[in-house]
Write a structure and sequence with these properties.
By secondary structure, this protein is an alpha+beta fold. The chain is built from three helices and three strands, in the order βααββα. The longest helix is centred in the middle third of the chain and has 13 residues. The radius of gyration is 14 Å and the shape is elongated.
Length: 68
C-alpha cells in the first residue's frame, strides 16, 4: 500500500519498516519478480511503484469462490 500512491526510492521505504535495507531490498525483489511492483532507475537510485494489474487476475479467481 505504501507504493500505491507514489514512486519511492528504497531509502524512503526502509525508513518506514523496522528491518534492514538488505531485508527490504529482498522483499522488493520478490514483489518485483511477482510483477507486483515495478522498478525504475533514476540517477543513482532505484525507485519502486506498485503494479496492481496482476491482482485483478487474483480477484477474478477468488470471486468465483465467493458463491461457496
Amino acid at each position: 500500500m505504501l507504493l500505491a500512491d507514489e514512486e519511492m526510492p528504497i531509502a524512503s521505504v526502509v525508513e518506514r519498516f523496522p528491518m534492514s535495507r538488505t531485508a527490504v531490498n529482498k522483499h522488493l525483489h520478490v514483489l518485483s519478480d511477482a510483477g507486483l511492483v515495478k522498478s525504475q532507475r533514476k540517477g543513482r537510485e532505484t525507485r519502486y511503484r506498485a503494479n496492481p494489474a496482476p491482482l485483478f487476475e487474483v480477484k477474478q479467481w477468488v470471486s468465483f469462490f465467493e458463491q461457496y
